[in-house]
């Protein structure tokens, strides 16, 4: 989770996209992502959603972080493994965005292959 909500994803957001309260809630949720309760994350996500000032033009990094936090909240609430799969897909997409992997050779880039292997190990039935 900490990789999906890293601070640099929020750097390109402009001041007119979120209210100050939403920006504060987003930053706080990212910092506390590994220890936050589902109820607290629910409240922060509500503040974030209420504080979005643009209609269909939210920064891609901010959108990615909100999406990851939403899946994490659902996982914390319901403990459904499917939410972890969604987070794994987001992690692969994040690396794909960085390395622009060829769809015919998706795992050819070393960084993509490493991320795939990391996700495979984390999601294996033997993983805690």
Poorly predicted sequence stretches spanning 5 or more consecutive residues: none
The chain-level structural class is: mainly alpha
The dominant shape is globular
Q: Sketch the major β-sheet.
A: none
The SSE order reads HHHHH
Q: Which range best describes the helical content: under 10%, 10-25%, 25-40%, 40-55%, 55-70% or over 70%?
A: 55-70%
In terms of DSSP E residues, the strand content is under 5%
Mean pLDDT: 86
Number of strands: 0
Q: Determine Rg (CA atoms, Å).
A: 15 Å
In angstroms, what separates the terminal alpha carbons? 15 Å
Oligomer: single chain
User: Total number of helical segments?
Assistant: 5
Q: What can you tell me about this protein's structure?
A:
- The protein has 5 helices and no strands.
- By secondary structure, the protein is mainly alpha-helical.
Quick description:
The protein is mostly helical and 128 residues long. It is built from 5 helices and no strands. The longest helix has 19 residues, at 60-78.
């Amino acid at each position: 989770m900490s990789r999906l909500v890293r601070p640099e994803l929020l750097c390109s957001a402009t001041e007119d996209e979120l209210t100050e309260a939403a920006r504060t809630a987003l930053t706080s949720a990212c910092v506390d992502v590994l220890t936050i309760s589902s109820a607290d994350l629910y409240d922060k996500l509500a503040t974030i959603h209420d504080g979005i000032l643009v209609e269909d033009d939210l920064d891609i990094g901010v959108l990615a972080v909100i999406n990851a936090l939403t899946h994490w909240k659902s996982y914390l609430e319901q403990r459904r493994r499917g939410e972890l799969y969604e987070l794994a897909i987001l992690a692969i997409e994040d690396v794909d965005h960085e390395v622009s992997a060829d769809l015919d050779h998706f795992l050819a880039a070393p960084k993509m292959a490493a991320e795939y292997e990391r996700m495979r190990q984390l999601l294996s039935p033997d993983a805690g």
